[in-house]
Amino acid sequence: MRGARSPFRPRPSRWRGPVELLSFTLYFLCAVLLVLSRIGHGLLVNVRDDFVDLSAPLLEAASMPAILGRHALEHARSYAGAFAEIDRLKAENEELKQWEWHAKSLENKVEHLRLLLNAVDEPALHYVTGSVIADARGPFLRSALINLGRDNGVRIGYAVINGDGLIGRTVDAGASVARVLLLNDLNSRIPVLVGPAGVRALASGDNSAELRLDFLPDGAKLYPGDEVYTSGSDGVLPRGLHVGVVSGSPGAYRVRPHAELSSLDAVSVLFFDTPTLTTTDPPVLPDPRALSAAPEATPAVAAAPSPTAAQTPAVAAAPSPTAAQTPAVASPPSATDQTPAVAAAPPPAPEQTLTIASPPPPIVSSEVAPVETVKQTVGGSEGTASVEAQTQQ
Predict the structure, then answer these.
(1) Separation of alpha carbons 315 and 335, rounded Å
(2) pLDDT tens digit string along 369-381?
(3) What pLDDT digit, counting tens, does each position of 75-131 carry?
(4) Domain extent at residue 162
(5) Over pLDDT 90: what percentage of the chain?
(6) At 141, which helix (H) or strand (E)?
(7) How many CB atoms lie within 10 A of CB 213?
(8) Are residues 340 and 369 in the same domain?
(9) Domain check: are 250 and 117 in the same one?
(10) For residues 157 and 168, what is the distance between their CA atoms, to the nearest angstrom?
(11) What is the 3-state secondary structure (H, E, C) of 38-89?
């Protein structure tokens, strides 16, 4: 019984020797290849590249079923989620229709109230568009240079916007280049209104990506996501320009600007002239594109002086005759005595003269004496004053 072979004892295999030899050969070959790869032998590199080129089509063909299966699975998932997406879009469309009707109703109501109040529509703002040519950044500076200047109508204090909202205002303007102070600059202060209630605050820059909200009234209720826009109370920026949205927590509210201030390209400058801007930076020439262009200077025309009493000859009225009066009539005074005193005229004006015709000798009769004619020349215009002196016998 001891000499019988147990059925559970492994039988010796005749392939054991060749397998061990093959394994040793493969291990040795791998070690040689690792050493050669570390050395960087050129022959090994060429062999490896050829092997990769030969195996690439085979690997691609082997991975094709896996790729097709993955695409089929993605399409199946998209088809399964398409029905839910369609239902969501239908519900959203119905909600938007309700909001559209509500918005139209409010628009009609506002228009009716404006007609009742006889409100004046705000004029449209003119603008000019250019590009940012330089971006100046530093520990205490956030500004940009644009290729627009006074030749394009740009002045100091104009608001600068892009497609997202307000980015800053001009602080210096040359002939063809202007510097823009960005919202997040340390020296930037913008009065704003926050939220639907229009809470007044001051958006201040601190050289970071977001702005601070300073001078909030006590008890102001703000919520993340509330819209922030300019109030226009500074007399420089127009009202209603979008600045950003509220972020942060109570006691440390911040404003995240709509515009990406770190990557600016195309910007527009709004022509909004106010008394403050006109005082600080008066325009050299009136620009018709500006909202409130300065009126052109009108030369003052001096009014012609009206004739005074000193320039009018005084003519004495002839005394009325009486019954007791003798027929003899006193001889009239000479022309020298009747010449009135005339005020000195300015140099350009011609000299005033007075000419009195010599009267005829008195006649004792009931006839009317001839008319005395007084001729006066004042300032180039000729005027005649007639004085009739009647004498009776």
Answers:
(1) 12
(2) 444 443 443 344 4
(3) 888 888 888 889 999 999 999 999 999 999 999 999 999 889 888 777 788 999 999
(4) 126-280
(5) 38
(6) strand 141-146
(7) 23
(8) yes
(9) no
(10) 9
(11) HHCCHHHHHHHHHHHHHHHHHHHHHHHHHHHHHHHHHHHHHHHHHHHHHHHH
Give the model confidence (pLDDT) of 59-76 as tens digits. 888 888 888 888 888 888
Q: Are 171 and 110 in the same domain?
A: no
Q: What confidence tens digit (pLDDT) does each residue in 316-346 have?
A: 344 443 433 434 434 444 433 444 444 444 4
On whether residue 17 sits in a domain, the answer given is no
Domain end position, chosen among 121, 151, 168: 121
Burial 146-170 (b: 16+ CB within 10 A, else e): bebbbebbbbbbbbbbbeebbbbbb
Q: Return the residue matching tokens 């303007």.
A: 173
For residues 276 and 235, what is the distance between their CA atoms, to the nearest angstrom? 6
- For residues 210 and 73, state if they share a domain: no
Kindly tell me if the per-residue pLDDT of 221 is higher than 50.
Answer: yes
Q: How many domains does the chain have?
A: 3
Domain contains 302: no
Asked whether the beta carbons of 203 and 192 are under 8 A apart, the reply is yes
State how beta strands 266-271 and 353-356 pair: unpaired
Q: What is the spatial distance between Cα 362 and Cα 375, in angstroms, rounded to a whole number?
A: 22
Distance from C-alpha of 178 to C-alpha of 167, rounded to nearest angstrom: 14
Do 248 and 136 fall into the same domain?
A: yes
Residue matched to tokens 């004496």 = 369
Judge if 149 and 245 occupy the same domain.
yes
CATH of the domain at 266: 2.40.10.340
pLDDT band for position 365 (cuts 50, 70, 90): very low
Strand (E) or helix (H) holding 341: none
| Structure tokens given for 350 | 């011609």
pLDDT in tens, 173-201: 999 999 999 999 999 999 999 999 999 99
pLDDT value of position 3: 52
CB atoms within 10 A of CB 341: 8
Co-location of 132 and 112 in the same domain: no
What's the sign of the alpha-carbon dihedral 151, 152, 156, 162? Answer: negative
